[in-house]
């Protein structure tokens, strides 16, 4: 027996408003967890042509966070925070 995904069902699910809210919620959790005492992250989300997408964008306080290494550290902390719940 071979598994055949329901592509039209998956595609419609990925454009669903509830899915969009969940994608936005996860991006906000990542940004909130990444924001340290010096970091400043923001989120952006939109319904694209095929699916919802979201991103945690930053670090806007780059100089104070320790440059590239600090920004990377903050973003990794954000990803860990998003898995926490």
Give the SSE layout:
Elements: H1 7-14, H2 17-34, E1 42-47, E2 52-57, H3 62-65, H4 67-83
Antiparallel strand pairs: 1-2
Helix pairs in contact: 2-4
Overview in brief:
With 85 residues, the protein is of the alpha+beta class. The protein has helices at residues 7-14, 17-34, 62-65, 67-83; strands spanning 42-47, 52-57.
Write structural notes for this entry.
- This protein is α+β, with helices and mostly antiparallel strands and 85 residues long.
- Helix content is 55%, strand content 14%.
- The protein has a two-stranded antiparallel sheet with strand order 1-2.
- The termini are far apart.
- What class, by secondary structure content? alpha+beta
The percentage of residues in β strands lies in 5-15%
In the sheet with the most strands, the strands line up as: 1-2
Distance between the termini: 36 Å
Mass-distribution shape = elongated
On the 0-100 scale, what is the average pLDDT? 79
**Helicity range of the residues?**
55-70%
**Care to count the β-strands?**
2
Rg, alpha carbons: 16 Å
Major β-sheet annotation: 2 strands, antiparallel
Number of DSSP helices?
A: 4
One letter per element, helices H and strands E, the order comes to HHEEHH
Low-confidence stretches: none
